[in-house]
Design brief:
Length: 143
Amino acid sequence: MDEFFERVVQVNRVSKKTKGGDKRSLSVLVVVGDKKGKVGVGLGKAAEVQSAVRKATSYAKKHMISVSLKGRTIPHQILVKNGAARVLLKPAPVGTGVIAGGAVRVVVEAAGIHDIVSKILGTKNQASNVYATLEALGKLKKI
């Protein structure tokens, strides 16, 4: 397969109360893309970081979406609300670069978009913002 761009966005320690004590594990959010218009997000949970990353990456590769591109940018402006997260994506002229916050930047770069302006409205939760960005990119129409 092609070489994929992988980026760990978030690592969370999670614990569960059981009869024998606390069960601790790690939850990892990974963004995977080919930088040619395909991108996916995966959430993996395991006792070690490496196992969780492997699970998340595997899920992300299986559930990739294709993104409509117009040259080096997106075809039109879009505002998506996913839960508390609201993400605004706007096309930008050549040479603008990626003007985006952390969570959006990772997804957009993995998709291979070079010129875009974005704004995160609503929550600061990175996982929610990643999913909202992915939804926005999936809703883009071909022009």
